[in-house]
Amino acid sequence: MEKRAVKTRKNRDLFENIAEYMRLFSHPIAVGVVYALSERPGLKRNVGQITEFIDVPRVSVSKVLSKMRMMGVVESDRHGTEKYYYLCENDDTAKKIVNIIAEGS
User: Fold this and answer.
1) Is 0.85 surpassed by the pTM of this model?
2) Which residues contact 103 (CB under 8 A, 6 or more apart)?
3) In degrees, to the nearest 5, what angle opens at C-alpha 10 toward C-alphas 1 and 2?
4) Helix%, strand%, coil% for the chain, nearest 5
5) What is the CATH number of the domain that holds 87?
6) Apex CA 41: angle with CA 40 and CA 42, to 5°?
7) Residues 53, 44: contact at Cβ < 8 Å?
8) Which of 25, 70, 68 is nearest to 47 (CA)?
9) Which residue has the higher pLDDT, 78 or 94?
10) 9: buried, middle or exposed (CB in 10 Å: 19+, 13-18, 0-12)?
11) What is the domain count for the chain?
């Protein structure tokens, strides 16, 4: 009985994790950010460049990038006063979702 409870808990955690990614990527701006950063491997863009690419308000892009960063979908490097964002390669779930979105273009 104990093994079943552990497996059920692991499944619940997995399902919650997947649902969190689905909530994030149900937002059109998050999908746009993925497109903006997946034009070519290793591409880095700042908020202004992403905003221009997907044509939405800067504040909206910043909010979505913050959430994406917390979830490990994107990372950032600071160069002077600018932060440059890029797709994270460490999270397998995020990487699979990003690849599915990027292939759909």
Assistant:
1) no
2) none
3) 15
4) 65, 15, 25
5) 1.10.10.10
6) 115
7) no
8) 68
9) 78
10) exposed
11) 1
pLDDT in tens, 2-43: 556 556 878 888 888 889 988 998 999 999 998 899 888 889
Kind and range of the H or E run holding 26 = none
Which residue's structure tokens are 């998050």? Answer: 30
pLDDT value for 5:
58
Where in the sequence is the domain holding 61, given as residue range(s)? 2-103
Mean pLDDT taken over the chain: 86
CA distance 39 to 44: 10
Question: Could you tell me where the DSSP H helices lie in 26-81?
Answer: 28-37, 47-54, 58-70
Residue 78 in 3-state DSSP? Answer: strand
Instruction: For Cα atoms 65, 70, 74, give the angle at the middle one, nearest 5 degrees.
Output: 50
